[in-house]
Structures are given as structure tokens and as C-alpha cells.
């Protein structure tokens, strides 16, 4: 995201990999952060967690709404075809079901590509979600006295000699009506040994309860203009198969957006769905496309509309369709495991797919590829060259 001139990382490769051992760190000479490989929308019994999916979908919609607001504030306009939707909210039925649910002991909803950063001089450490679909860096403030902040690491601006307060307040609204907000600072930020000075950030004093159980302290985009690179690996990043295929980003929207995507469904191009825009978003759990396009895709593989509101489709669990994305080079396929979000109910032969149709306000030709796609590939975000690279995992 470039909607705010937030950060400046110096020339260095910053690599965040998944499940790597200390030996890998040494041999690569890069910082390696272990990441979670599991799917948070599937319950332990293999059944699709509808309520969790609704909550995440609402969060995704509101995050992108906020991105558009930021874009509009910075440029005075919205990208062509984009529109500001109203704030999405979690239906009260879902809220009340969640309230009455037994908390599961192992339900650490670690849905992020998380890693450590330090802020300030001397450095204060935080675990943040590296969200390539977000334009803000925020961490809890030492002045946050809400219960949701209790278990978090907190930023103390007065303890950092490089911290400087800026005018204005940062605020983002989440689906349950709660918000994350606080004052804005600039300070030095260090990620994987790379130091950035003058990074904009918000030290939030208001933190929605929904973040209390998140393993991370805050969220951040942090890539910047000059030669910085973020690499997110899938299940086994040690083994990239073949070359990394690079694509210039479409910089008209401020997203990590690649033009000219196509989708193959079971090896066939889907008629009427081609040359679309794709936003690569590590902060989103599944993949979304425009409602009509996704309907066409599922139709070719006999998918059934499961939930119109959420744009979710089901398929025969035993015959998982193969969806592959292509930008003029290799095909990058979503594995059956990553496509399958679980049975529609316990004992069902139908399973929910991780490609949904939704209008996110991003234009009728823009897809949003989150974890369910990104877990299958090795993705490089290169802000120096303004490129996104993909490689197959072997
Ligand atoms: C980065 O900043 C930290 C804290 O300010 C400092 O200790 C470290 O030496 C710096 N590293 C580099 C590579 O400049
Ligand atoms: C919490 O902080 C706010 C301002 O940050 C303050 O107005 C309020 O009194 C504080 N509450 C408690 C219980 O300390
Ligand atoms: C903050 O606002 C004050 C008053 O409007 C202004 O004088 C000052 O220059 C602003 N500071 C920054 C860093 O923009
Ligand atoms: C980017 O880095 C190069 C080489 O270090 C430098 O010449 C150039 O001025 C930098 N550009 C910006 C925008 O910082
Ligand atoms: C870039 O994205 C915008 C908005 O999604 C789109 O209208 C435009 O056609 C794209 N540009 C190119 C060169 O594809
Ligand atoms: C967007 O890309 C075009 C062509 O690659 C380039 O000329 C332009 O400077 C870029 N704009 C920004 C804001 O990076
Ligand atoms: C991608 O998949 C399609 C459909 O299976 C196939 O026709 C095409 O040759 C594949 N492309 C590459 C580069 O493998
Ligand atoms: C979809 O259903 C039709 C009719 O039953 C069948 O001929 C076709 O093979 C099915 N396609 C897939 C991908 O299952
Ligand atoms: C799911 O169904 C199986 C049998 O099909 C049963 O053993 C199991 O207890 C059920 N689980 C739940 C959570 O209902
Ligand atoms: C998107 O909307 C525009 C304007 O309404 C229309 O011209 C265009 O054909 C639509 N594109 C798709 C892929 O539906």
C-alpha cells in the first residue's frame, strides 16, 4: 500500500518465512519468522466455521473500506471503478451465537503472517501481522488502559528518543462497531535488521475487544519506496520450484495489485472471466472475486451456491475442483487442502470452497487474493521495483 507515505526501508531483502529452522536462518542469512500454516475457518471436527467466516469477511470489507478512505484523503479521489461501501457489520445472530459458545482452549485464531519488529531508540519489540493489504502500522500504546490491551506489548513514546508526535488521530472501525484508534507518531522502526527512520505509526489507546485474543500486538504494512522486499512463503519455503515470476504492480490504486490475471477451473479458462486485476493481500484469509465472475467459475465445476450473502460455494468433498491463477506465465494452483474450508455440516459430503464472490467496493474487475491463494505460492513484494513475484513451491 502506498496510500500514505509511511515508511522507508533501506536496500535490503527482508524475508519472512514459514516453519523454518534456525539452520535456514543461517544459510539464507535472513531473518526467519515461523508462521502458522493452519486454516482458521475450519473447526477441529472438520466442519466449516460459518460464523468465523462471516466475522472475517466483515473485517476484510471494512479494512478495504478504510484503505479507500485513506486513499481518498491523500489524493482527493477514488481509483476508477472503486466505490466506498457502507460499513459492514456482523449480523446479530452471529454475535449472539458467538457469545453463547464455549471458548475452545486451542482456538488461538492465529490468522496472520506474523513477525517481530522493533520501534524506537532503544528498541521496543512488537509482534505484528504483516498485512500487505493494509496501509497503516499500529501497535498498542502504553496509555491504553483497556482490558484488550492487557496482554499486549505496549509502545511508550516517552521512552524513545527518536519518537516524535504528529498531528491528528488514527482510527479504524471494525465490523462489530468497535474501533482501534490513537495518536500518531513517527519513530524509527527496525524489521529483520533493517532500520527505517521517520516511520509513521499509531500508538492506539482504544483497542477493540476482538483483538484481545489475537496473538499479535498490532498490524502493519511497512514496505516502502527503496529496495525493500517482503517474502511470504507457503508451507515449505525451503523448496521453491523454478524461477520467481515478477510482475509490475498497477500503482493506480495503492494496493499490491497485478493486472492481467486469468483463472483456470479444472484446466479450462472460464469464459467471460479474464484479464482481471488482482490484489495480493496477506491480511485476508480467503480469496474473493466479483460476484458474477465467481459464479461463472463455480458453475464450470458444478459448485453450488451455499450462502448468497457471503458468496460462498460448496462442492463435493471427494471431487475438489482445481483453480489456478495465471498472469501470463506459470499457473499457480490452489491445492485441495487450501481450497477446502471444511464440510457444510458434520457428516456432509459437501465442502465449502475458499473462493467467494463479493462486492468489496474494489471495482467489478478486481479480485482479492488472500491466504487461501498465498499459501500455495512463494510471494515476493518488492517495493523498490514496484513488483510482485510468484514462484511455485515444490
Ligand atoms: C538499527 O537500530 C538499532 C536501534 O536503534 C541499533 O541498535 C542498530 O545498530 C541499528 N542497525 C543498523 C543495521 O543500523
Ligand atoms: C483510561 O484512559 C483514558 C484516557 O486515555 C482516561 O480518560 C480514563 O480515565 C482512563 N481510565 C482508567 C480506568 O484509568
Ligand atoms: C500541528 O498543528 C499545529 C497547529 O495547527 C501546527 O502549527 C504544526 O505545524 C503541526 N505540526 C505538524 C508536524 O504538522
Ligand atoms: C534509493 O536508493 C538509491 C541507492 O541507494 C539512491 O540512489 C536513491 O536516491 C534512493 N531513492 C530514494 C527515493 O530514497
Ligand atoms: C489499474 O487498475 C485500475 C483500477 O483497478 C484499472 O482501471 C486500470 O485499467 C489498471 N491499469 C492497467 C494498466 O491495467
Ligand atoms: C506508476 O507507474 C508508472 C509506470 O510504471 C510510473 O511512471 C509512475 O511514476 C508510477 N507512479 C507512482 C506513484 O509510483
Ligand atoms: C496452465 O493451465 C492450462 C490449463 O490446464 C494449460 O492449458 C496451460 O498450458 C498451463 N500453462 C502453463 C504455463 O503451464
Ligand atoms: C458437472 O455435472 C455434469 C452433469 O451432471 C457432468 O457431466 C460434469 O462432468 C460435471 N463436471 C464436474 C467438473 O464435476
Ligand atoms: C460428527 O459425526 C461423527 C459421526 O459421523 C460423530 O462421531 C461425531 O461425534 C460428530 N461430531 C460432532 C461435533 O457432532
Ligand atoms: C464493470 O462496470 C463497467 C461500468 O459499469 C462496465 O463497463 C464493465 O463492462 C464492467 N466490467 C465487468 C467485468 O463486468
UniProtKB/TrEMBL annotation:
InterPro entries per the UniProt record, alphabetical: Aspartic_peptidase_A1, Aspartic_peptidase_AS, Pepsin-like_dom, PEPTIDASE_A1, Peptidase_aspartic_dom_sf
Keywords: Aspartyl protease, Disulfide bond, Hydrolase, Protease, Signal
Cysteines engaged in disulfide bonds, as pairs: 144-149, 317-351
Bilayer-crossing regions: none
Domain of life: Eukaryota
UniProt-annotated catalytic positions: 131, 281
Domain Peptidase A1, residue spans: 113-391
Signal peptide: 1-20
Gene Ontology MF annotations: aspartic-type endopeptidase activity
GO biological process, one term: proteolysis
Family: Belongs to the peptidase A1 family.
Protein's UniProt name: Aspartic protease
Species, as recorded: Gymnopus androsaceus JB14
Lineage per the UniProt record: Eukaryota, Fungi, Dikarya, Basidiomycota, Agaricomycotina
Amino acid at each position: 500500500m502506498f496510500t500514505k507515505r509511511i515508511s522507508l526501508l533501506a536496500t535490503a531483502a527482508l524475508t519472512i518465512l514459514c516453519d523454518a529452522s534456525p539452520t535456514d536462518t543461517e544459510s539464507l542469512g535472513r531473518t526467519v519468522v515461523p508462521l502458522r500454516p493452519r486454516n482458521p475457518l475450519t473447526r477441529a471436527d472438520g466442519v466449516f466455521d460459518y460464523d468465523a467466516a462471516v466475522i472475517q469477511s466483515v473485517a476484510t470489507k471494512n479494512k478495504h473500506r478504510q484503505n479507500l478512505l485513506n486513499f481518498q484523503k491523500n489524493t482527493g479521489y477514488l481509483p476508477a471503478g472503486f466505490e466506498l461501501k457502507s460499513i459492514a457489520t456482523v449480523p446479530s445472530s452471529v454475535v449472539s451465537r458467538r457469545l453463547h459458545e464455549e471458548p475452545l482452549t486451542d482456538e488461538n485464531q492465529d490468522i496472520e503472517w506474523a513477525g517481530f519488529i522493533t520501534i524506537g531508540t532503544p528498541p521496543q519489540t512488537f509482534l505484528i501481522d504483516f498485512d500487505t493489504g493494509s496501509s497503516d502500522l499500529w501497535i498498542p500504546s502504553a496509555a491504553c488502559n483497556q482490558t484488550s490491551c492487557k496482554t499486549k506489548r505496549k509502545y511508550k513514546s516517552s521512552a524513545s528518543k527518536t519518537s516524535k508526535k504528529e498531528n491528528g488521530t488514527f482510527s479504524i472501525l471494525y465490523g462489530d462497531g468497535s474501533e482501534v484508534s490513537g495518536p500518531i507518531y513517527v519513530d524509527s522502526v527496525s524489521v529483520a535488521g533493517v532500520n527505517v527512520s521517520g516511520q509513521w505509526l499509531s500508538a492506539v489507546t482504544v483497542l477493540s475487544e476482538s483483538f484481545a485474543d489475537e496473538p499479535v500486538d498490532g498490524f502493519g504494512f511497512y514496505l516502502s519506496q527503496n529496495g525493500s522486499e517482503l517474502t511470504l512463503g507457503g508451507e515449505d519455503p525451503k523448496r521453491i520450484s523454478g524461477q520467481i515470476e515478477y510482475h509490475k504492480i498497477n500503482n493506480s490504486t495503492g494496493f499490491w495489485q497485478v493486472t492481467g490475471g486469468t483463472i483456470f477451473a479444472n484446466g479450462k479458462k472460464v469464459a467471460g472471466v479474464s484479464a482481471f486485476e488482482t490484489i495480493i493481500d496477506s491480511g485476508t484469509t480467503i480469496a474473493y472475486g466479483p460476484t458474477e465472475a465467481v459464479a461463472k467459475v463455480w458453475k464450470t465445476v458444478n459448485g453450488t451456491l451455499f450462502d448468497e450473502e457471503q458468496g460462498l460455494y460448496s462442492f463435493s468433498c471427494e471431487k475438489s475442483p482445481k483453480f489456478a491463477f495465471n498472469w501470463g506465465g506459470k499457473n499457480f494452483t490452489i491445492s485441495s487442502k487450501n481450497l477446502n474450508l471444511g464440510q457444510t455440516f458434520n457428516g456432509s459430503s459437501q465442502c465449502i470452497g475458499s473462493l467467494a464472490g463479493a462486492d468489496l467496493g474494489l471495482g467489478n474487475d478486481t479480485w482479492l487474493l488472500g491466504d487461501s491463494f498465498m499459501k500455495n505460492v512463494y510471494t515476493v513484494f518488492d517495493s523498490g521495483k514496484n513488483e510482485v513475484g510468484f514462484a511455485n513451491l515444490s
